[in-house]
Amino acid sequence: MTESSSGAGETHRLVAQRKEKLAAWREQRAAFPNDFRPDALAGELQQRHADDAAEVLDEAGHEVAVAGRLLAKRVMGKLSFATLQDRSGRIQLFMQRDLLGEDEYKAFKQLDIGDIVGVRGKLSRTNKGELSVRAADWRLLTKSLRPLPEKWHGLSDTEARYRQRYVDLIMNQDSRAVFMARSAIVRGVRDFFEARDFLEVETPMLQAIPGGAAARPFVTHYNALDHDFYLRVAPELYLKRLVVGGLERVFELNRNFRNEGVSTRHNPEFTMLEFYQAYADHHDLMDSIEALLRTLSDHVAAHHGQACNEDAVRFEQPFERLTMREAVLRYNENIDQQLIDDKEQLSRFAESAGVRGEASWGQGKWLTELFEETVEHKLVTPTFVTDYPAEVSPLARRRDDNPEVTERFELFIAGREIANGFSELNDAEDQAARFQAQADAKAAGDDEAMYYDADFINALEYGLPPTAGAGIGIDRVVMLLTGRSAIRDVLLFPQLRPQAATPG
Question: PROSITE patterns given for it (predicted)?
Answer without folding.
Answer: AA_TRNA_LIGASE_II
